[in-house]
Amino acid sequence: MTFRNQILAFLLLLAMIPAFAHADEQKATVVKVDKDKREIVVKTKEGEKTFTYRSSTKGIENAKDGAKVTILYEKKNGEMRATSVMAQ
Questions:
Q1: Do residues 53 and 74 make contact, with C-beta atoms less than 8 angstroms apart?
Q2: What is the pTM of this model?
Q3: Is the Cβ–Cβ distance between 44 and 36 less than 8 Å?
Q4: pLDDT tens digits for 21-76?
Q5: What is the pLDDT of residue 18?
Q6: Contact (CB, 8 A) for 26 and 49
Q7: Could you please report the per-residue DSSP string of the chain?
Q8: Do the Cβ atoms of 9 and 19 come closer than 8 Å?
Q9: Taking a C-beta distance cutoff of 8 angstroms, is the pair 30, 42 a contact?
Q10: Looking at the DSSP assignment, which residues form a beta bridge with residue 9?
Q11: Which CATH fold topology does 23-87 show?
Q12: Among 18, 37, 48, 52, which residue carries the largest CB count within 10 Å?
């Protein structure tokens, strides 16, 4: 691999980093799961928050009333979308 190709590969990698660094994390206790609306309401130190989820959300079965969870999420169009729900 030439030096030029190494530089191009490095720049491509740098351009991709924001896509992977986009997820945030929230530790919370599940208050309610609304399967019809696909929402999880949780209690955090800052108060109650609502996350939407999809069928592709990993670990959604961990979201049960009263469960302590860590939610990985991303913000899109003003809503917080859970990408993963992990039991604590």
A1: no
A2: 0.74
A3: no
A4: 567 999 999 999 999 999 999 999 999 999 999 999 999 999 999 999 999 999 98
A5: 55
A6: yes
A7: --HHHHHHHHHHHHHHHHHHTT-EEEEEEEEEEETTTTEEEEEETTEEEEEE--TT-BTGGG--TT-EEEEEEEEETTEEEEEEEEE-
A8: no
A9: yes
A10: none
A11: OB fold (Dihydrolipoamide Acetyltransferase, E2P) (2.40.50)
A12: 52
Q: Are 31 and 48 in contact (CB under 8 A)?
A: yes
32: amino acid identity, one letter? K
| CA dist 34 → 1, 2, 54, 75 (Å) | 53, 55, 12, 19
Q: Which position has the token pair 């896509």? A: 19
Which residues, in sequence order, are bridge partners of residue 75? 80
How many other C-beta atoms are found inside a 10 Å radius of the C-beta of residue 40? 26
